[in-house]
Amino acid sequence: MKGNKHIERDENATKIFNDRNLAQNYRNLTQILQPGITVLDIGCGTGSISRDIANNIGPNGKVIGIDNTESFIKSGQESYQSVSNLELIAVDLFDYNPDIKFDLIVSARTLQWLSNPKEALIKMKSLLKPNGQISILDYDHSNLIWNPLPPESMQEFYSTFLKWRADAGMNNKIAEDLPQLLQEAGFHSIEKINSDEVYNEGDADFKSKIGIWSKVAGSKQMVEEGYLEEELRLKAIEEYNNWIETSALSMTMKLNEVRGKL
Ligand SMILES: C[S@@+](CC[C@H](N)C(=O)[O-])C[C@H]1O[C@@H](n2cnc3c(N)ncnc32)[C@H](O)[C@@H]1O
């Protein structure tokens, strides 16, 4: 059974994922969506972007979203049960062996969490049809831009977050390394498309979008693993929330969409 802290973490993440959509959070993908294709969305979270892809490709197409966090899949199955060409499955990418192959495999903000992204790309390759295409959307966390800089406490929290990720084998600038990784995994016709997300004061969802870092700091994991004092974590949340209310002008999250063909 999952502990309370996991439930809390999953509920926070569920809200973040449900707020995402294709138009704002995977905006260039529509260029390669065609009516009637079969799409696999890996690490789909609650499936809100998968739902938009399903609606875009129409009733003759099919989207399967997979995620290895069961609560995200359960939430999506409830929310999007009326979308008849969308299926959400709780399974790990490395254990997923479907009977069908896909025209297009997409994966947004997922390889950033893996210590073996090349193996994941090789696994994805095995799930594509001949002539199939892959599209990976991911972050360069090492180049996040805040304007103005947030309080020292949040800057320290963020640099600790990057160190914690790096120590766990995650690539903080995977967005920049994806073209090379796709090439090494055997893809060709590789394209890199800038997909930065820029949030400006005055945007309707500005505070909730830039508030992502208070939500990340809401997790006690780095404290429990000895990376951070609890006092600094709480200070970072409080001072960052105050900065959002009083000083924040913009935040840019650096992302690339990288495509490749078989
Ligand atoms: C940051 S979320 C991205 C959700 C969604 N794609 C989006 O862009 O909003 C990354 C997701 O990848 C899932 N994930 C991580 N490793 C996975 C694996 N090996 N197989 C399947 N899903 C995985 C996590 O459970 C999480 O939901």
Return the CATH class. Alpha Beta
Fraction in helix:
40-55%
- Low-pLDDT stretches are none
Strand order of the largest sheet: 3-2-1-4-5-10-7
Bound molecules: S-adenosylmethionine
Distance between the termini: 41 Å
CATH superfamily: Vaccinia Virus protein VP39
Note the total helix count: 11
Arithmetic mean pLDDT = 95
Task: Tell me the number of structural domains.
Answer: 1
- Basic shape: globular
Strand element count:
10
What is the element string, with H for helices and E for strands?
HHEHEHEEHEEHHEEHHHHEE
CATH architecture: 3-Layer(aba) Sandwich
Largest sheet: 7 strands, mixed
Give the C-alpha Rg: 19 Å
Task: Explain the overall architecture.
The longest helix is centred in the C-terminal third of the chain and has 17 residues, at 230-246. The protein is of the alpha/beta class and 262 residues long. The radius of gyration is 19 Å and the shape is globular. It has a single domain (11-261), classed as Rossmann fold (3-Layer(aba) Sandwich), CATH 3.40.50. The protein is 41% helix and 23% strand. Strands 3-2-1-4-5-10-7 form a seven-stranded mixed β-sheet, with helices on both faces. The protein has a three-stranded antiparallel β-sheet with strand order 6-9-8. The protein has eleven helices and ten strands. S-adenosylmethionine binds at residues 17, 20, 43-45, 49, 66-69, 72, 92-94, 108-110, 113-114. Keywords: Methyltransferase, Transferase. It comes from Flavobacterium frigidimaris. One of its GO terms (molecular function) is methyltransferase activity.
